[in-house]
Structures are given as structure tokens and as C-alpha cells.
Amino acid sequence: MKKQIQYLDKEIIKIEIPGKKMLKGIIVEVGSDVFVLFDGKDYFYIPIAHIHQFQIDYVNEDGIIMPSETTGLLNKTQDELTLEKVLALAVDIYSEIYVTGNQSLHGYISNIMNDYFVFQSPVYKTMYIGIEHLKWLIPYIHTEKPYGLSKQDFTLQSIPQAMPNTFQMQIATMKDKFVVFNLGEKENHSGSVRAIKGQFVELQTARANANFLNLLHIKTIHY
After folding, report:
1. In whole angstroms, what is the distance from residue 119 CA to residue 110 CA?
2. CB neighbourhood size of 128 (10 A)
3. Among the residues of 19-165, which ranges form H helices?
4. Domains in the chain: ranges and CATH
5. 44 exposed, middle or buried (CB, 10 Å; 0-12, 13-18, 19+)?
6. What residues does 129 pair with on adjacent strands?
7. H/E element holding 170?
8. Residues 81-128: pLDDT tens digits?
9. Which of 217, 177, 207 is nearest to 194 (CA)?
10. 3-class SS at 217?
11. How much is the pTM?
């Protein structure tokens, strides 16, 4: 994939990702499965799998220019960039991520498992997020803190030392707990986990109705 799109290096492009969200900036790095886009202020680490389409912006009305020096996560590796390496480098670094809905999440990654990661958020506290659903990650500059808070200001749930390796196994540990899936975008995404039946999670919602959610479409969990 990298060889096929290497020509985009240093080009200014407009990218559409899920949710009809449009991003615009200059490509500063092309990894095997991730783009790094600089919009004049922030570095967006964007999984290629979530790029619906893009256009080269030959006009550059916003006057975006290549940063004078490389900063952020790119400074920490000389190896070929991958999403796996991006997540590893971002551990404990304040970041903005986008997964679903109409809002970004702010906080930091604390743990990475096989197919999900743990994200510590001042708003949602401890969250479990499927890696395949991450649409972008923006590391904060070193002087920034989300909402002006320090880590000491976060009130977080304790993380077990031994965590399940997969997202599905993590959900299975939440049996009989009240959880919120996908940031509660829909009313029937909040409730008590009753069972995992094949590809579906049985969730008991507010009026004691059973709602079955496809595991493949569960993006975030918090409780």
C-alpha cells in the first residue's frame, strides 16, 4: 500500500472519513496502514482503512505549508510507521481521538491489547475502544492538557493487572454490569449486559427490553 500511494508525500489533500467528516492538510508521512496529515497546527494520524476518498488540493487556499521541523510521535521512531506503532508511541500522551458520533474524545491511552485499547478520559473515565474503529489520533503539544487538567485531577477506575486480550473477551467480563456502548449515541446502547450470543451482545435496556448489538459494531465501552 505504501508504494502505491508514496507519490502523495508532501501533497496537500482533502480526505473524507466516516461520518462525512472532511480533513485537509499536507501529507508529512505515509506508513503501511496510516497517513500523517498536518493541517497547519496539528498532526492527524489517520488509519488508511478509514479513508473513504481523497482529492489533491492544488490551490491550497488555506496556505498550509510543511512544518519546519518534525515534532510529536514522528520524532520517536525511525522505523516504518504503522498504526500499531502509533498507538504504542501515544501511550500516556494527552491526545484527541475520534471514534464515533459528533464529538472527539480527549485523554490518553493507558493500555493496548490485541484489538482494543484503554483510553482514560476526564469525561467518560475508563473507556475500552476497538482499534479498528479509531478514525484519527492527534497528539497534544507538550504544554497542553485536556480541559486544563493534570493526570492527578482525573478520577479513574482502577485497571486490572491482567486484562482480557480481545475486545469480545473484555465485553464478556462485563456480564450483569451496566454499560454504555458507542458513547450512548442511541437510547438502546445503554443497559445491563446479559449475555454474548454468537456475534451479538444481549443488552437489557431501560424498560427491561432485550436489545441485541452486533459485536462488530461496538466501537466504545464505558461504565
Report:
1. 6
2. 23
3. 83-90
4. 2-146 (2.30.30.600), 167-222 (2.30.30.60)
5. buried
6. 117, 220
7. helix 167-172
8. 899 999 999 998 899 999 998 889 999 999 999 999 999 999 999 999
9. 177
10. helix
11. 0.90
